[in-house]
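User: Fold this; tokens only.

Assistant: Input:
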Amino acid sequence: MVSFSEYAKANPYYTKRNENGEVERWLEYNDDIKASNPLYDASLNSYSKSGGYSISDKFVAEYTPIKEMKIRGRFGFTHTSSDSKTFYSPRSTSYYETEYTKRGSYNWGQTKTNKYEGELTATYAKVFADVHMFNFAVGGYLSQTNSTYNGYSAVGFPVGDYDLPSFSNGYPEGGKPGYSESISRAVSGYAIGNYSYDNRYLIDFSYRVNGSSVFGRNKHYIGTWAVGLAWNLHNEKFIKDNLKSLGITYLKLRASIGNPGNQNFSSSATITTFRYNFNSFNYFGMTTSMAQLGNPNLEWQTTIDRNIGFDITLLNDRLKLVGDYYYKTTDPLLITIDMPASSGATNNQIYKNFGKQTSQGFTGQATYYLIRQIKNRLWWNVRGTLRTGTTKLSGIGNKLESFNSKEREGENRSTKRYYDGASTDDIWVVRSAGIDPATGREIFIKKNGELTYDFSYDDEVIVGNSRPTVEGVLGTSFSWKGLSVSADFRYRIGGYSFNSVLFNKVENISTSSLIYNQDKRALYDRWQKPGDHAQFKDIANSVSTPMSSRFVQRDNSWSLESLRIGYEFSPELARRCGMGSIRLNAYMNDIFRLTTIKQERGTSYPYARSVSFALSLTL
């Protein structure tokens, strides 16, 4: 069991096998170099296995007291179980400096989840005087999800096929079995309705009262709602004929506003919890300490989503266009912040409600039929989607200054910052004027425009945005009798990205990493002598390279995302085989990808182009 990245970083000039064709433990081993052989580690009895199953049972009952009304009850139960186990052989090269009695490891974990849910709904639908159409539904929903996790680790195994935990020497130092349990409950009542007058004017509305245990005990409930209006202009007498003369057969204008709600985090975030300290006792017995500081006033994240759009079909139903402008505000946000050490909590993070995020943009879709002969079962269309938008933060102030400082100076440095007026997609780094041809050192640009060799985080500015200016999918589909072909291309234009490969594998190469295979730009594109105009600094300069705009690059891309070829056999053949229909499909994903940024993809986990086949039989 060896990660693909281990093969990728092995230097190609090492000999994989010795003169006898045997795979040795080391590619090279001496006082200075200890390069492990991934082929050797792959030959060991290490493994990583996982499995699971899910059982679901749904019970539905319906009752129709009158023609216009239906009452529906639903109860469901779902049980999910998954487990994983990983074993590393004591002969693995990763243990070459480990104490003999602690070589080898075994990890096991199991998660079980039971979900119970029930729903009762009453719907009523009626048409009055052939022009008034009314639908209304009221109902309630409740659920409970119980989840448990068990797991442990063991170390110290004898050499051989002894991979069971009973052969281990014990738990890791300071280790013990792990267990966690969570219970979350939700309840809601809702009313949904829509009304249509003469299929010209339409209104939809919904209101839902939601309660969930994942929020603070003082903020368990919230009302979510939505209202939508639509106008079918193609059914208006005063304009219907004019639309037809323009080749427009369908034209709808619509607008909506609503609050969808959100509860995507653990219920434990609202509860203050404690843990026992097995290594600390006092006069009264075992001591406890705060594990997590809860927030009983945690509110639902509230989003108001506004949308204005249109649907239009023209050119004798050959061209269909859909467009939407959205304006979305989320207030308050749910943000995790670090607590001071004085809080005493082992987990020094807490969820808080503050700040506001505003998002706006446009989405569009278009479909055009080049050939459209439905009777002959022949058609060919081209289609496309696009999305463009921006986000902006406000109401944060200096509440996340500690987070911003940690992101730029901590071990897991990133280019994200959270400031009022900025976007969550902005890239924050110090601007770079490139490598000085005379010295091979990097020149930085201060906020006031001055040039300096001295790097300072105080000079950080926004140098780009990771959100593309426009992105979407362009596709085409063809069908002739039983044969069908479909292809989708994804495009991205105008975004930027921080090239971490250049940062970590070209500039910031540690001494211990020199034994591994490196990016060739680390040698060929570096400054070597005075007068060189190079992208990267002098290789002899051992000073750690900070994040700068030199590593921020435009990220435009074009890829063939999916390809499908299918064939449906004739109904006569299917009937002769005792089937209602027979279909064959072949799929392939990620056929190619062209991009303006060069960086690794899929070294930790192999980047795969998969091909699959499907046979569908209908009785």
